[in-house]
Amino acid sequence: MHALLSLLLVSLSVGLSNFAGAIGIGLSGINVRTRVRVGLAFGFFEALMPVIGLLVGHEVAGFFGQYGKYVGGAILILTGAYTIVQARSINVEQKARAPRSLRTESLLVTAVALSVDNLAVGFALAVYPVDIWLAAITFGVVSILMSLAGLELGHRLGKRAEAWSEEIGGAVLILVGIAIAAGVLG
């Protein structure tokens, strides 16, 4: 039960980056085709990256032994801190640019970039008995739902909500990392 709770919390926290990205896309207007494209691209890469991280992580999890929860927690904390720092620098850069139309290449690059943190998250979760398929499905479904919500919010509310989504996601990752390292989750 704790593993599932950890998985859900982590998927929500890393899904916030997709939420923020989708808000940005939604600002320039959306239609059904855009919703489907963004949902599928973001969901696919959010599901794929933790699977790769889990597969690699399972191979080296035994190496860490009893310190695995500290290593996993530290990876999540560092990933969260990186997310916050990156979000602050990207937000400054985005203010200088006008929104562009969504090309397939841009969408795929965005989806991969937003899912790189899931590679580290998958590696961190590998020290726990987490089913790879459950993780992939959870990350993918949460990502699709958060992406669709972000598209709608961006479309309706504009830039206000976008400003802090990445930072909130990074903070949640840090808190989940601390909870895992402290033995509260996992």
Can you put this structure into words, describing what you see?
This protein has one domain. It has 186 residues and is mostly helical. Helix 1 packs antiparallel against helix 4, helix 1 packs antiparallel against helix 6 and helix 3 runs antiparallel to helix 4. The longest helix has 33 residues.
What is shown here, in short?
The chain is mainly alpha-helical and 186 residues long.
Q: Structural class of the helix and strand makeup?
A: mainly alpha
What is the helix fraction of residues, given as a range?
A: over 70%
> How many structural domains in the coordinates?
1
Biggest sheet: strands, sense, closure? none
Question: Which helices and strands, and how do they pair?
Answer:
Blueprint (H helix, E strand, L loop, with lengths): L1 H25 L5 H33 L3 H28 L8 H22 L6 H26 L4 H20 L5
Helix pairs in contact: 1-4, 1-5, 1-6, 2-4, 2-5, 3-4, 3-6
State the main characteristics.
186 residues; mainly alpha
